[in-house]
Amino acid sequence: MLVDSLPEQSAAPAPPAAPRKRPARRAAGLLVSVGLLLLVCVASIAVGAKSLPPSEVWHGLFHNTGSADDVIVADVRLPRTVLGLLVGTALGLAGAVMQALTRNPLAEPGLLGVNAGAAAAVVSAISFLGVTSITGYVWFAFLGAAVVSALVYVLGGSRAATPVRLALAGTAATAALFGYVNAVQLLDSAALDRLRFWTVGSLASADMATVGKIWPFVVVGVLLALLIARPLTAMEMGDDTARALGAHLTRTRVVAMVSVTLLCGAATAACGPIVFIGLMVPHLVRTVTGPDMRWILPYAAVLAPVLLLGADVVGRVVARPAELQVGIVTALIGGPVFIHLVRRKRMAKL
């Protein structure tokens, strides 16, 4: 009996199946997210002050004859949806990159003042330099985003920065810059008329010309973010560990900041400062993917536009036939989420 039992006792245990199943589950979750994005895109085209059935949406997209419904679909809602895709992807990736780069769970383009810097630069260009084109907005938005990113990083303590210090520095910079924006608009009635919707974040004035001007910057920013996914994952474990794993820290930081500047600058120039997208989506994604940036970034690129376009659809429905700007809807959703994250992460005690 003892001899017969030895082979069973000496047999090696089977390897756990969970690690092998995890990539498959992540891939399946990403496919589901893409399907959800497609549904939200259809809703964005079909829902508005006038709801359109799927047959009219299809006709307007592929058999445009110039009818009123076809014009609504092809010339109004399609550009709005495409712009929402680009801006949502840009803000979601920028938030994920910033959180990994600073090892700060509260990092987000709106919270750390990046969007406010871009907005202040664009408002200055409009009021003092007479810039009126989206091409001009983009370059000034890049400049403002880059300057404020560096300023907040320095005010937060540079390498000694903590999540709370960065959040406080970003909040202070955002308050000061939006105070400046409001003052400029009050002193310049023409600027106020042009910017009263843009400064709260809106997709209402989207057109294909705007899409054509910003998509190259968004594509380059997305590619740069994806290229540094592996070193960003290593940097989340600390600089020493990242060096031991072969990550080039200075190069990664430079590429990350260029990526964030391109993404935030293009998004803000196109539709104004929209907050909390880059904060909420990466946290939601991490519950599925864990800390691996190679999965976080693709998920964020897909789910951030789901949130942005979903908020835009809600804003069109709740105030019909008028609409609530998407920046207001995301702020109403993001405020409670931010408070929850602060309490859950015990940031007040840091």
Helix run count: 15
SSE order: HHHHHHHHHHHHHHH
Structural class: mainly alpha
**Estimated radius of gyration:** 23 Å
Largest sheet: none
Proportion of strand residues:
under 5%
* Mean of all residue-level pLDDT scores: 82
The proportion of residues forming helix, as a percent range, comes to over 70%
Distance between the termini: 62 Å
Give the total of beta strands.
Answer: 0
**Quaternary structure annotation:** single chain
Summarize this structure briefly.
By secondary structure, the chain is an all-alpha fold. Helices cover 76% and strands 0% of the residues.
Description:
By secondary structure, this protein is mainly α. 76% of the residues lie in helices and 0% in strands. Helix 2 (18-46) packs parallel to helix 14 (293-318), helix 6 (134-155) crosses helix 12 (249-271) and helix 7 packs across helix 8. The chain is globular and about 65 Å long.
Secondary structure topology:
Blueprint: H1 2-10, H2 18-46, H3 54-62, H4 68-102, H5 114-129, H6 134-155, H7 163-187, H8 189-195, H9 208-227, H10 229-235, H11 239-244, H12 249-271, H13 277-289, H14 293-318, H15 326-344
